[in-house]
Write a structure and sequence with these properties.
Blueprint lengths: L2 H5 E8 L3 E6 L2 E7 L2 E4 L5 E4 L1 H6 L7 E4 L2 E2 L2 E2 L2 H13 L12 E8 L5 H13 L2 E8 H9 L9 E6 L4 E7 L2 E8 L3 H16 L1 E2 L2 H11 L13 E7 L5 E6 L1 H25 L2 H10 L1 E4 L8 H9 L3 E3 L6 H11 L10
Parallel strand pairs: 1-9, 9-10, 11-17, 17-18
Antiparallel strand pairs: 1-2, 2-3, 4-5, 4-6, 7-8, 11-12, 12-13, 14-15, 15-16
Helix pairs in contact: 3-4, 5-11, 6-7, 6-8, 8-10
The structure holds adenosine-5'-triphosphate and magnesium ion.
The site of adenosine-5'-triphosphate (ATP) has 23 residues, from α6 and α7.
């Protein structure tokens, strides 16, 4: 360790639409919802992450909660900068008593991002204290996090189903050969469920409840092994206005999600059809890798496997695959020459 290293701290950030994760010294030190609570009167930040999430959907007129990222990119520059700053502040042992360390960051970005959006990520990081910023494409980070050797002369298909976007990419020789990104992912699934509950049960539920339904009994198929039990959902009756409870089954939720999942399937087929033949042959052998929270939906791997007639593997701990890969890239800055400065 050189003298310079003493004053430099490295962190890897997965700035996601739904969750922000940070790795420091090989450990995940931040894993929090990307939500900020703000006092409307003073514009001061009241809470970020878990604390802000508890307030989500339960605020009164003086507090608002915002999700600073939309569809994988920064939608509210100020809020996201504050969020990054607060989350970095919460990292144990990062700040010494004597000096503020200079920060070197690797941050991942969606593959379809524009130059302006890229600039916003870089600026937010710099305003939050970064001296050196490197950017890495999310599918690349996901692949590294899964343990794929991305620099081999061999094609690999990665699908990252996050909160805001589904990114499908074919990687080879350390680069993205072709990719397809659609704004249908976990958050759309959640909205589909909320809409279904209104339309079919006259029950008005908030986003946290709809997400809970998805996690407890959500399914991509109407025929799955070990189906989850029926689930009681509470909300407000649209007709009477009174609080009420209804019982739903996983089959209903599978119906509610069907259209959105079909859109993801179509995007995957399109990405496969754009893949050069030599790489298609590789993918035929190695199958498809999936990461991101949305890939945890019951039966989704099976459904995609049936549709593509390829084996589908879901990453271990899919919510953390991207940040794991970003952390590995951070440790090997010289090796991974595809990192952008
Ligand atoms: N067990 C589960 N089943 C289904 N969906 C889940 C499960 N756990 C989490 N999710 C969903 O995963 C999504 C969040 O995934 P992730 O953290 O990978 O997204 P993100 O990286 O923040 O978003 P993006 O990459 O689009 O910017 C949310 O929509 C969440 O509801
Ligand atoms: Mg993500």
């Amino acid at each position: 360790m050189g003298v310079f290293d003493l004053f430099t701290q490295d962190i890897a950030i997965d700035l996601g639409t739904a969750n922000t994760l940070i790795i420091h010294n090989d450990k995940v030190v931040v894993d929090a919802p990307s939500i900020v609570a703000i006092d409307r009167a003073t514009n001061k930040i009241i809470a970020v992450g878990h604390d802000a999430r508890m307030m989500h959907g339960k605020t009164h007129e003086n507090i608002k909660t915002i999700r600073p990222l939309k569809d994988g990119v920064i939608a509210d520059f100020n809020a996201s900068e504050h969020m990054i700053r607060e989350m970095i502040k919460s990292i144990p042992g990062l700040k010494s008593r004597w000096f503020a360390p200079s920060l070197r960051m690797v941050i991942c970005i969606p593959s379809g991002i524009t130059e302006v959006e890229k600039r916003a990520v870089r600026d937010s990081a710099e305003h939050a204290g970064a001296k050196e910023v490197y950017l890495i494409h999310e599918p690349m980070a996901a692949a590294i996090g899964i343990g794929v050797d991305v620099q081999e002369p061999k094609g690999n298909m990665i699908i990252d189903i996050g909160g805001g976007t589904t990114e499908i990419a074919v990687l080879a020789l350390g680069g993205i050969v072709c990719d397809k990104s659609i704004k249908v992912a976990g958050d759309v699934f959640t909205n589909d469920i909320a809409f279904y509950m209104r339309a079919h049960h006259n029950l008005y539920v908030g986003e946290p409840t709809a997400e809970q339904i998805k996690i407890e009994i959500g399914s991509a198929l109407e025929d799955i092994e070990n189906p989850p039990a029926e689930y009681a959902v509470k909300g407000r009756d649209l007709l009477s206005g009174k609080p009420k409870q209804v019982i739903v089954t996983y089959k209903e939720i599978a119906k509610a999600l069907d259209k959105s999942i079909t859109r993801i399937e179509d995007a995957i087929l399109e990405a496969l059809s754009m893949t050069p033949p030599e790489l298609a042959a590789d993918i035929y052998n190695s199958g498809i890798y999936m990461a991101g929270g949305g890939s945890m939906l019951r039966g989704l791997d099976m459904r995609i496997s049936r549709k593509t007639e390829l084996p589908v593997y879901v990453a271990e701990d899919p919510l953390r695959a991207v940040v794991r890969g970003t952390g590995i890239a951070l440790k090997n800055l010289e090796k991974y020459n595809f990192l952008m400065r």
